[in-house]
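Researcher: Let's continue the batch. This sequence belongs to Tautomerase family protein, and it's 132 residues. Same format as the previous ones, please.
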Amino acid sequence: MPLVRIDHSEARTNSAAVADAVHVAIVAVYGIPVRDRFQVVTIRPAATIIAEDAGLGFERTDPVIIQIFTQRGRSDAEKQALYSEIALCLAAVGVAGEDVFIGYVESGPQDWSFGFGRAQYLTGELAVPALP
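Model: Same format as before. Here are the structure tokens for Tautomerase family protein:
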């Protein structure tokens, strides 16, 4: 059950399609339930997103910044497969590969509260999701 933050400029008019594409990729690669969807999409002035060349030799034109917060335990190969699938799904809605920037943050069951000030994975109200 990843929590996904997506930031993009107001120049993009397909915000829902971008969010849907990221979710489709996560469902496809990680096998999470379709309704296990937690996303925050922030549309901002282009000047508030700075994503310069990291030494890879390409320029971004209109970056989409994606942060994925999820439980630890997936392999590097699984993460790479996710990054690739996100890029493919975003390409289908008009986001160029060089404009896809992903940050991935892992945590444990104690790091999540779904409401009422309780860590439901620890209290047993929710089962800790099994990794594929």
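Researcher: Any comment?
Model: The chain has one domain: 3-123.
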